[in-house]
Amino acid sequence: MGGTLDISTFYYPLRHLSPCTFNIALNLRTRIRLFPYNEGIIKVSSRGFKSAEYPTDKISFNHPLGLMFAIASYFRAEGVHIDIDSSSPPRSALGGSSAAAVALTGAFARISQNHAESKVPGRKIALLAHALEESVAGLPCGLQDQLAAVYGGVNSWYWKSDIKGHSFKKRAVIKKQFFNNFRQHLLLAYCGFPHESKNINQKWIKQFVSGKYHKLWAEIISCTQMFNKALLEKNFKNACIAMNRETAIRRKMTPDVLDKMGIRLVDLAVNHKCGARFTGAGGGGCIWAIGEINDISRLRHAWGEALLKRKEACLLDVNIDSKGLEVNEGLRD
């Protein structure tokens, strides 16, 4: 909820409204392993993408795996094979690339410490992974995906525009001991069609900087605040109202934020008294829903039938991750 408000283009001029976002860290974990490779070469492999390798002096960042190469370049890595294993569908708008960036940044940061016992703070890893992603993307990017990957949990993020201190503040919305109950109020579906988040994000940024829809963005902030308050109070009815209003606003600004399957799933959710929203920046990928347990149970059946009409589309397990980033050292040469 409230995505895009974690981009400084929005939260600086809207700071008087206290912009915030909300996300859930799912236990669809991304694992990165580093192996020795040919001297002077970096190789990256990831499920759903063709493997690529470059000499260190000829690395291309204009590549589907360019972010991973950019991180390797930052740490002056060479002679390494980076193997990425993600549990989420490729380009599913579940923050997989940001999670992979956090994992790889964390791994290289640990190695660069030369076996120092102290850990690199998670905040620094998130900020560095975000900065490198933004540099490769060539446009402003949000930070909340990296934060979810580092910290885990169910959190709201408040975006501060002070020049001193942290640029964000974390607030736990659902505590760990209530995760099992909370997941029964959730539903997640992959629409079977990959997304390209930067296309829609670019539209929102261009609209905003040209002076369009400022009042609608103010309303999105209000919806996200209402959603966070409702979840803190376990008021799922109000959470659904806030979510559906936010989704409607996004569709008004960018009709292509939902594809045909997404429209069908959102309509079914509303008809079953649930709230529904696209993940990430939409335009394909996943749709998630929230509601009372009985309503979600009925919606699960309805979504299941709808998803049968598109190859690759399916329901995904909703398990909440509480650990966030973990860096484990295996055998070394």
Overview of this structure, please?
By secondary structure, the chain is an alpha+beta fold. The protein folds into two domains: 30-156, Ribosomal Protein S5, domain 2 (2-Layer Sandwich), CATH 3.30.230.10; 176-316, GHMP kinase, C-terminal domain (Alpha-Beta Plaits), CATH 3.30.70.890. Helix content is 41%, strand content 18%. It has eleven helices and eleven strands. It has helices at residues 8-11, 66-74, 96-112, 122-137, 144-151, 179-183, 197-209, 214-232, 236-253, 260-271, 293-307, and strands at residues 20-24, 30-36, 41-46, 52-55, 80-86, 154-159, 168-174, 186-190, 275-278, 286-290, 314-316. A four-stranded mixed beta sheet has the order 2-5-3-4, covered by helices on one side. It has a four-stranded antiparallel beta sheet with strand order 9-10-8-11. Strand 9 and strand 10 form a beta hairpin. Helix 2 crosses helix 4 (122-137) and helix 3 (96-112) packs across helix 4. It is globular. The relative contact order is 0.17. The mean pLDDT is 92.
